[in-house]
Amino acid sequence: VRKAAKKQAAGARAPARAAVLGAGIMGGGIAFSSALAGIPVRMKDIRADQLDLGMTEAAKQLGRRVQAGRLSQARADAVLAAITPQLDDAGLDAADLVVEAIVERLAVKQQVLAALEPQLRPDALIATNTSSLRLADIARPLARPQNLVGMHFFNPVPAMPLVEVVRGPQTSDAAVAAAVAYALAMKKTPIVVADGPGFLVNRVLTAYFNAFNELVAEGVDFTAIDRAMEAFGWPMGPAWLNDVVGMDTGAHVGDVITAGHPKRMRAIDANPVHRMVRAGRLGQKSGAGFYRYERDAVGKPR
Ligand code: NAI
């Protein structure tokens, strides 16, 4: 796949300077992966606590690599220094590519990107990390829709090799090539996919999550489903995966993809993930979802 990707990069260069909007679960990981690849990155959020979280996570990742002897302390310091956390728009006008990793709401993404675009160089690219929305819709308020491309990373970003590079109906070949080159520079495995609700991986995953939600709504114990799917060979069962993804994000993504493929997927009555969102149990990030988590706990929830 990487060989095919090198062809798709068509000699394009990875950005020399990047920026990420959002320092949450995904934005923090993308900024870290960019800095680790030697590409300096500005990381903007509207919340200082989220910026702190993003920097703390990056420092933790680097600490682990130093401890394992995979990185020198000097290199780790340089990687951390290559991430500039900020609440304002400083330096965005110098970015070659800005990755958007904010909340999964079409209207919010449209509004934020329309406000961002005039601050960027005319040739700068915007890569959205949306997991379910169509690029055609996100691009609607943009003056330069040819510069919008999808870069759908997976969670946790530093560990997951796959990146879906999404070609929207107006995305230019140059934008696709640059996104592929950026993913390759981060040592990821990019695949170019067409625009459509859920692209490839999440479309497959939504059918799986829908079956899981249906079983739980019918009264099957979610821990039994997790144990079964883990014994089947998945690294984590669907309840645990929901907790890691974030219940609000997962619920919204599931709704958008289910509605986008009405002939193949149907909405689940008494959807347990919706109930969890209403109860504020957003998964690992809020301390409880299907399982409960100690603060900052990572790894298996039992
Ligand atoms: P999150 O809730 O952890 O982080 C979102 C961040 O965006 C928050 O820190 C928030 O303060 C910030 N934000 C909101 N408005 C902003 C603005 N105007 N400017 C800058 N920052 C702003 O969400 P998460 O999970 O990182 O998701 C972000 C995007 O990534 C969504 O589109 C989601 O669908 C997608 N995604 C999520 C995955 C997951 O497993 N959680 C996997 C792949 C994609």
UniProtKB/TrEMBL annotation:
What are the protein's GO molecular function terms? enoyl-CoA hydratase activity; isomerase activity; long-chain (3S)-3-hydroxyacyl-CoA dehydrogenase (NAD+) activity; NAD+ binding
Describe the location of the 3-hydroxyacyl-CoA dehydrogenase C-terminal domain by residue ranges: 198-293
Q: What keywords sit in the KW lines?
A: Fatty acid metabolism, Isomerase, Lipid degradation, Lipid metabolism, Lyase, Multifunctional enzyme, NAD, Oxidoreductase
Query: What residues does the 3-hydroxyacyl-CoA dehydrogenase NAD binding domain cover?
Result: 18-195
Q: Which GO terms describe its biological process?
A: fatty acid beta-oxidation
Task: Output the superkingdom of the source species.
Answer: Bacteria
As for family, the record states: In the central section; belongs to the 3-hydroxyacyl-CoA dehydrogenase family. In the N-terminal section; belongs to the enoyl-CoA hydratase/isomerase family.
Q: What's the protein called, per UniProt?
A: enoyl-CoA hydratase
User: From what organism does this protein derive?
Assistant: Pseudacidovorax intermedius
Interval of the full protein contained in this chain = 299 to 600 of 716
